[in-house]
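Reviewers asked in the last cycle whether our approach scales beyond single polypeptides. To address this, we selected a multi-component target totalling 517 residues and predicted its structure end to end. The input consisted of the following lines:
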Amino acid sequence: MKRRLFVASSLSALGLAGCGPVKESLTTGPFRNVLASAENLNRTVIGTRGLAREYKDSDVDRNFRVNGLDTPSDSGYAALVRGGFRDYRLVVDGLVERPQKLALAELRAAGDHTQITRHDCVEGWSAIGKWRGVPLATVLAMAQPKPAARYCVFHCFDVDQSGEFYYESLDLHQAAHPQTVLALDLNDKPLDPDHGAPVRLKIPTQLGYKSAKWVKRIELVADFKTISGGAGGYWEDQGYEWYAGI
Amino acid sequence: MSAGARVYRHGIAARTAHWTWTLAILVLMMSGLQIFNAAPYLDASDKSNPARRVLAFDAAQNAAGGVSGYTVVFGKRIPTTHLLGYTDDGMGAESERAFPAWLTLPGPQDLADGRRWHLFFAWLLFVSWVAYLISAAVRGTLRELVMRPDDFRKLWPMQLYYLRLRKEPPPHGTYNPLQKLTYNVVLFVFFPLLILTGLTLSPGIDAAVPWLTALFGGRQFARLWHFVLMALLLGYFATHLVLVLTTGFWNNMRSMITGWFVLGKHDGAGP
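The resulting structure, written as structure tokens, was:
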């Protein structure tokens, strides 16, 4: 009995006292790269297969939860809001044959896609929204990516406290998925500033942080390693997976 | 074989699998709680829906001017300060946090790293589970483990023996019928269901295999199942630990490390 007690108590002491420093040291350095290797496996296995489920109008969350930050504090953005986004132009450039500067009316005229899909946040919650806009593939086709282009990088209006701009990136397979869309409307109304007005990305086959809000520029690149932190996105630079299908 | 005889009980595949799973499950539980902390509530629905909330943790100002932590089960608020809801944040203080830092991996709030740990060790669990089943099937040891109709009839006599209401256990092979049932539930129900419910939390999987998500009642419901299965597995783990400790700890440990087990009066019985 005594021996059992001793074993049990030393095991629990190890667990409580010893784990803290061990846990932290294993989370940094080369070991972290081993953990991160699972991402490539997930991406290979899941890929861009299938279509996200489409829901009914009655399933929609009328007060769609705001993911990420609220309205950007950027002064240029504030001016656009005051002007009702009349001066907004979506820039598509980088490795393209025909760089584009698209006003909202031109975007609306380019295509019309509506989807009622579930938004899955990396934190764990889900909400259903009705998104209307133009498929990303349509806009990319207008700009005609050069053969060297492999990724599109979305540059956004919002800036965090340390001055980092929000950005995201997709490869051209993910960009070509029929449900990957540049959304202009949410729940039958033009996007409001909190939800990413006037243009946000919506990609229902990946976690919410990929669906960048307040997109101002889409840059076609061969590689995103030289952009900002080099991991392909604002949250990716902070350790989140670039492939957010899981 | 008589009492005191040494038998080679666990092959190298079973022992490797056992310790791989021990490590994987420990890491998966702790990193899973880290991930859970980012949205500390569970809804029996597809999208998040507070009207169908089964379990939640939160913190609120109390009458004494401090902060109390609460566990909310089907809307009923139970104060659980220090333990759940308002707990150790791993930075030398307490804050609004469902599970305390000493239970999560990493300790302080870090969803990104929690996910890295979780998704890597999920692969480790899956691959080692498949490898073990293939190896056990090829070597024929799977036959000793899988429940047969005869085992179901022996469950009650075995239970009576454990309750000391029966002198002798019913005759059995390497594993007694209760052991077999437990291992079968863990290996063929808990493991696959934990993996499948976990996968359906992923929007990529939901697009690729939509019927799987529907089977569990949607994404949030799958999250609830995933949590419940984790709790059941934890219950199994606690029982397993008690039995390992009370049925000859060193003998059990030796057999799971070196393979060799010293038989007692009625053995094969073990944890």
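The helical segments of chain A are 2-26, 30-36, 38-46, 75-82, 104-110, 136-143, 172-176. We regard this as preliminary and will revisit it once experimental data from Aim 1 are available.
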